[in-house]
Amino acid sequence: MERSLRISPSPHIKDAESVTRIMYMVVLALIPAGVWGVYIFGTQALWVIVVSILAAMGSEFLFAKMMKRPVRVFDGSAVITGILLAYNVPAEVPLWLPAIGAVVGVGIGKMTFGGLGYNPLNPALVGRAFLMASWPASMTIFKTAPAGLSLSGIDVVTSATPLNVFKASREILANSGAHTAEEVTQATQTISELYNANAALFFGKVGGCIGETSVLLLLIGAVFLMYKRVIGWKIPFSYIGTVIILTWIFGGTEGLFSGNPLFHILSGGLILGAFFMATDMVTSPVTFKGRIIFGIGCGVLTVVIRLWGGYPEGVSYSILLMNLTTPLLDRFTKPTPFGGKE
Amino acid sequence: MFRKKSFRGGAHPHDEKRWSADMAIQEMPLPGTVIIPVQQHIGAPADIIVEKGDAVKKGQPLTKTSKFVSVPVHASISGTVAAVEKRPHPFGTDLTSIVIESDGNDAWAAEPVMNPDYLSLGTDKMVQIIGEAGIAGMGGAAFPSHVKLSPPADKPVDTLILNGVECEPYLTSDYRLMLERPDDILAGLQIIMKILGLTKAFIGIEANKPRAIALLREKCAEKKNIAIVPLAVKYPQGAEKQLIKAVSGRSVPSGGLPMDVGCLVHNVGTAAAIYEAVAMGKPLIERIVSVTGPGVRKPRNIKARIGTPFADLIEFCGGYTQKAAKVINGGPMMGIAQTTIAVPVIKGTSGILVLDERTAAGSDELPCISCARCVDVCPMNLLPNHIAAFIEHNRVEDAQKMGLFDCMECSTCSFICPAKRNLVHYIKLGKALWNEAQKKTG
């Protein structure tokens, strides 16, 4: 009855969860928001998503081959990068744009650092930052009016996102001396309209990037990931909480504590960023305190860029900047071992 | 059902107790040959006092020791010493062992006799008996029990905890012992309390053993000084520091011992063995072993003589199933995979787990994706991912600063890792590299 036995170090049983399963759960969680994007922006949005995913997977394959590394095109991580990149561009960009973004994001942002697990920055955001810097016009002009409802009275031709409109109006109010009385009245009215558009913002009946519009559908995906313990609460909650507090204090047009935090949570890419990009495991801290600080840092930077910076939206750059602090945050927030001195 | 106490971290592997939980303890037929390794405990080795060709009787000591942190081994059958040589040991190396061939008589050197007056033996005498009986912690670590029962004067013990947690999946030997011999366990507990001069004790049991909890509660209904504490079903609830934390709320300091916080932990099996030694003069020559898992035909809980080859126990359980692929000394989380089933049952063998191809199959390591699951589950509050990465890059000193030696190698991090990284394996390697470097530098 002697037979050759298998030998391995303990433990001899393993949890069923795997990297690939985690990745495809994220993909699954992202699908509802993408379906909505295709519904309101049309089939053009679908092509952007498809091209972006294929380019991400293709560059993963090519770079792995070139670098003689194991090819893991189907581990799901390239698919996520492709989806996130597509979700962060307007629907009417030329199709070569997401393709280039995906090649830069996956190829340079991830594979040159050694592939999944070794990239310091979120690959999708690297791709997006590259596109923003290289083709700012294509990346910020939202020509397509969302199907169905749009925000009444707002020019949907050149500046369709609520954050663009908000920023422009706020600047007029902050500098009212330089504008006519009519312009000031118009701006006041616009902001109050935006503040009353919570329902449209929540359900996603507004312009914007392909995957960022519907807060409801993004939250459904986020709740699923939290339930499955793929993402935790620490980063998204501390991120969004910080945005709420800071926009309430500084975001208003009538002095301190007159802001409307709800508008800031519901518009732009905050929900997409906080739940799906800031939580990227590879590029965020592993410690409890580190994650909280990471989230707060993302929140502070987002509000600074939105209220005082050159762009209407600051989610991507905030997360990228905070990605760079991850190793330091981990080092400075190392937990005290059990039984150690506090 | 119960208010459950616990600790921070931990994971929830399937408990897999179903294979053998309902199998009453069965006594193995007398083995033809036993292989008794001289070293079965943590501590100094003992000197061999028999030679090849000697006739030995059951219960006769085979080794003798003058060191305090050491225990002797005893003949577990009567017969002839066939060899004193190196034989495969469950810890993975060949170690000097005394091989005894049975004469079929199973005759005692000195038959155990019940001493009705055993509680009036002096405490020093009791400790001496426990040491001479060769009792070493039966939960797996096998630290000499009499040493634990002699705390230094400056570290008084005020809290005694019996460990009936059995948090390793599959294993059911402590569970069966609690169900079938609760009086022996409680009598052993009483002896330990007498030695330490304690008036109060706890028995910690994982809440997935409601029958054992109910039975021991019933037995202790009159004894107000023994509290049965149901604990959350979570691995590694039975680890010493985690058990102490859950039961008493105290944290054993990093690098310290339970007695630093006035605590002492003994396994329930050890308590039963202490009772047999003190009350009847019976040395430790047998123990309960769960032979279980999808790789054996009839999983069972067996009372086996120390030194019985694994092969005999597996045979007694109907042999391997078609798909048996891996044999483990102990449980699936911390147990050691065996290259051969010629290895014997030793004092710390709580189970022989036979896994099949599907359960035992390993998978390739992928790069860490920093998901921090290992950080979340680490009961010692370490960063296993970072420690392992340092060791992988030969930066043992950095790993040491991250708490390398706080790790108790419970394997929860490796279990939970979605990239299937052998984190604990790196950590064990790191400890070995560190110790080697320390030796070199003197």
Question: Could you characterize what this model shows?
Answer:
The complex is a heterodimer of chains A (342) and B (442). Chain A has helices at residues 19-41, 43-66, 77-87, 96-108, 123-134, 136-140, 162-174, 181-195, 198-203, 215-227, 234-250, 261-266, 270-277, 288-308, 315-332. Chain A is mainly α and 342 residues long. Chain A has two domains: 19-140, no CATH class; 162-209 and 226-330, no CATH class. In chain A, 52% of the residues are buried. The model of chain A is unreliable at 148-159 (pLDDT under 50). By secondary structure, chain B is of the alpha/beta class. Among the domains of chain B are: 112-280, Rossmann fold (3-Layer(aba) Sandwich); 373-441, no CATH class. Chain B has helices at residues 123-132, 145-148, 173-180, 182-196, 210-219, 240-248, 268-280, 310-316, 357-360, 373-377, 384-392, 396-401, 412-416, 423-441; strands at 26-27, 33-37, 47-48, 55-56, 63-64, 79-88, 94-102, 159-164, 201-206, 226-231, 263-267, 286-292, 300-305, 324-329, 336-337, 351-356. In chain B, strands 1-13-12-16-14-15 form a six-stranded mixed beta sheet, with helices on both faces. A four-stranded antiparallel beta sheet of chain B has the order 2-7-6-4, with no helix packed on it. Chains A and B meet through helix 1 of A and helix 8, strand 14, strand 15, helix 9 and helix 13 of B.
Quick take:
The complex is a heterodimer of chains A (342) and B (442). Chain A is mainly α and 342 residues long.
Instruction: Supply the number of helical segments of chain A.
Output: 15
- The CATH topology of the domain at 112-280 in chain B comes to Rossmann fold
For the termini of chain B, the CA-CA separation is 55 Å
Query: Any idea what the shape of chain A is?
Result: globular
> Largest chain-chain contact?
A-B, 41 and 71 residues
Helices and strands of chain B, in order, run as EEEEEEEHHEHHEHEHEHEEHEEEHHHHHH
